[in-house]
Specification:
The protein is α/β, with parallel strands linked by helices and 287 residues long. It has 11 helices and 13 strands. The chain starts with a strand and ends with a strand.
Amino acid sequence: MSVIFFDTDCELWYTQADELGCQVIKMPYTIDGEEFFYDLGRNTDFESFFKRMRNGSQTSTAALNPTQYVEIFEPWFEKGEDILYISFSSQMSGTFGHLETALKQLNEKYPGVSFRRFDTKNICFGSGYQVYFAVKYYQTGKTLDEVIAFLEDFTNHVAIYFMVDDLMHLHRGGRLSKTSAIAGSILNIKPILTVDDIGKLTIAEKVKGEKKALNYFMSMLEEKGSELDKYPIVVLDADNKEFKDKILAKIKEVYPNTEIWNYPVGPVIGTHCGPGTVGVIFHSKTR
C-alpha cells in the first residue's frame, strides 16, 4: 500500500484536497501572537486576516519541528506504507531540516519503510498545480515511481508570476532593502516575482502600476503558455478583488476555451507577500 502527502503551502482549495483524498500537512502561521494551522480555506476568514494585516497586525510563519513531523508520519511508518510527500520548495523554508531529523528517528524505528519527498521547487499554487495533476495521474492506477517520473517532467512546465502590492512586506521578508521599498512605493513600482529553476523567488520584472502588470501577465501567457486547452490557468489574489477581476476578464477574453481556476491566497503565503498580491499560474513551455 502507498500514501501521498502534501502541505498547505501548495494552496490547493479544500474541496480539491477532499477530491484527491491525500494526507494534508497543515503549515502554521501566527497573527498577533496567536498560532493557527492553515486549513486550505475550509474555515479561514481571508478578508479578516488581510484587513488585520493592513491595520498593522503582526503576522509570521514558522517551521514544523521534528516532534510534529514524527506525529504526522509515524502512523504510516507503523503500517509499513510507502510514502510520497509532494512538498513546496526547499529553498523557501528551514522546515525540511527538521523533517530530516524526524525521518532519521522514524527510519531507525521502522527500517525498510519507503519515504520519498518530491520537491516541486515552487510555492503557492505553483506547487499545488503539480500536486493536483500528479495525484490525478496516480488515480489512474499509476505507481509512485511513475508519479515521480511524471513530476520530474511536469515541474518544468509550471510557471508562476505574481505582483506584490506593498513592497514593505518584501523588505520585512529580507528580499528588498528598506530604501528600495520606500522608493518603489512612492513611484508606484509593482515588482512581479517568479520562482526560478531551483525553487528560489526572483524578480521577473518591475512595472509601474497595475495596468502594466496586467499586460505583463498576458505577455507571459502568450509567450510561454502551453497546452492551455488541457490545463487550467489559475488566478489568485490576497484580498485584491478589483484587480483580480480585471485579470480574469482579460484572460477569459483572450482564452475563452481555457478553464480558469480562481482562489484566494492563504495566510501562510499571504504573510510573506502581503495583502493586494495577485498571481497567475499556468502550464508553460518552460518554467
